[in-house]
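Complex record, two chains
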Amino acid sequence: MMLGILTFVIFVVMMREGTDGVIEGLKGSWTLSRRALPITLLGMGLAGTLQVLAPPGVIGKYMGDDSGLLGLAIGMVAGLITPGGPYVMYPIGNALMASGAGLGPMAGYVSARNLVTINRLLVWELPFLGWPFTLTRLIVSFWMPIAMVILLPIVYRLLPQSIRDRAPERTVEK
Amino acid sequence: MTLAVMAGLFLTSLLVIKWRHGNAGVKQGVNQASSMLRRIAPMMVMGMVIAAMASVALPSEVINRWLGDESGVTGILIGIAVGASVPAGPYVVIPLLGTLMANGAGVGPLAAFLTAWSVIPISRSLVWEYPFLGAPFAISRYLVALSFPLIAGFLAPPIFALFE
């Protein structure tokens, strides 16, 4: 997938700007990498240590349907600190659900993770987009996990039974 | 500044692990980090090249016209459409947004792009969310999130103006 996009952009640059354009693009890539490298390495180190400090199977038990505000808060905080890409987040989400996490806390987990990951914020958004834009985006986003926590369970109950039957099974009864 | 904060957090977390789980815990943490690095490094390098190449391939006039501050609702809708359909991680998307920003894209379209990529990503929802979290959860979450990027696109410019 990525290789395809890469080939495509290099091809377009080649067509429009010739070899000089490609060289200019490569110089730009080097500048970008040099700026991002140190902080990315630290971000990944932090991601690794966080998974040892807070294993998901344990956290999910505190996120049940009747865990109330505490469950919502735990879900959102877990989302904020979950590092890595979808290959980390969704298996963790699955483990949280399997160990009993309810709809509201899961909605909090997924939307907090999607919108404001501390890792992504520090490693990518701040260095590349600057603090005025990053802060703006945080302000226009902070209500979204809250809206999601309230609305998702309502929409879920409105879905036809045939779709609701396809929820993953829980290993722990609530 | 950011670097110092990150280094501090990393060292603190290592110390906490060392104190609570001993050397085995530290080793486990380092292993997790290095396997993540090996998986992501090639994608990161490609992402940087894609972002830098895009800045050569897309002239400022084009970006200005379709995503500039004057592009209004059209710019926001383009931002949402592209954001929802880009099948890439932050290592491509954020440098690309930085490039677009430096070449004249407006705050509204950029915020809409970033929000759409975050909450209504088509490929991530199909490939990851649907199988791992189940159809009913994925569908209801997607439906609720549909309006978020549009709202972000309209709210962002006046708030951004406060910080300039």
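Note: The first helix of chain B runs from residue 2 to 57.
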